[in-house]
Amino acid sequence: EQHNWDMGFEFAEESCVSDVCNHQISDICLLKYQVNAPQANEPNTITMELICEGITWLGIGFSQDGLMAGSEAVIGVLSEGVKKYNLDGRWMGGVKP
């Protein structure tokens, strides 16, 4: 069974800058995250942990315009570990580690 969740909330809650926040995405998945306050001349970053029950693969994508093509994704597969991918298109050849 495959799930796609549009989390529909803002990450930049004030308390999540100093504390780890939890967002229950579904009955089986919990997202823990913290917005990392930038230091001098450093970019904003976020630290996340996505926890789901069962044996599965997990992925999260980041996009400037909400589209898959041209975005970046992090995918974790139990037997292969976690890798970052550039999504240059909507086909397998467009997914590049």
Can you describe what's shown?
- This protein is mainly beta and 97 residues long.
- Helices cover 4% and strands 43% of the residues.
- It contains one helix and seven strands, in the order H-E-E-E-E-E-E-E.
- The chain has one helix at 15-18; strands spanning 21-24, 29-36, 45-52, 57-62, 71-77, 81-87, 95-96.
- The strands form two sheets. It has a four-stranded antiparallel β-sheet, with no helix packed on it. A three-stranded antiparallel β-sheet has the order 1-2-3.
- A hairpin with an 8-residue loop joins strand 4 and strand 5.
- The longest helix is centred in the first third of the chain and has 4 residues, at 15-18.
- The radius of gyration is 15 Å and the shape is globular.
- The mean pLDDT is 78.
Distance, first to last CA: 25 Å
Rg of Cα set? 15 Å
Considering DSSP H and I runs of 4 or more, what fraction of the residues is helical? under 10%
Largest sheet, in brief, is: 4 strands, antiparallel
Q: Detail the poorly predicted runs.
A: none
Shape: globular
Across the major sheet, the strand order is: 4-5-6-7
**What structural class do helix, strand and pairing data support?**
mainly beta
The count of DSSP E runs of length 2 or more, i.e. the number of strands, is: 7
Helix count equals: 1
Please state roughly what percent of the residues sit in beta strands, choosing from under 5%, 5-15%, 15-25%, 25-35%, 35-45% or over 45%: 35-45%
Mean pLDDT: 78
